[in-house]
Amino acid sequence: MAIRVLLVDDQPLLRTGFRMILEAEQDIAVVGEAGDGLQALDQVRALQPDVVLMDIRMPRMDGVEATRQITGPERDGPAKVLVLTTFDLDEYVVEALRAGASGFLLKDAPANELVQAIRVVAAGEAMLAPSITRRLLDKYAGHLPSGEEPMPDTLHTLTERELEVLRLVARGLSNAEIAADLFVSETTVKTHVGHVLTKLGLRDRVQAAVYAYESGLVRPGAQ
Fold first, then answer.
1. pTM for the complete prediction?
2. Bigger pLDDT: 141 vs 183
């Protein structure tokens, strides 16, 4: 089955460029386009895409609010959001990740990175989640807890090893790097990550990294 993609951007030329890139791939089908967040919501309900390629700054409804509604608890389908941004430290990207985006990509990224990002997000993984999420959260540390607040009760559902894995995910380590750090197999790490996501009710590694910061488990700037 082809990955169904909805393109959301207020610039028609960009949407055309993205469509040309994606339609050259046998396993990807562009099922629709939208020029703002409100149109995106309508198209998601009508077309049931697997992945929404979402611009952030748009008229009527921006990409952050559209992402929140598409990925929120009242969502109509399983669509995942991959945010597009012009700047790699766009202040809105943090909010989009908090809202439920599965990652973000720069608009000037090479075509092969765009294609790979679509595949990764469609598979349920997070695109560029660990290291870039951490850079963003470090930059906007003023919006996050100081680390002095008590940690939420949900963290107490995790084992010590799962807490350790969550800290490493938030630090930007891949599964392979975590496995090497903890002297366990990569399969074991994947199992731990899966348990963390399930216990905390998170969708992917992006949300896990954001949660680790917002809960105070990891402090911005900490190694």
1. 0.71
2. 183
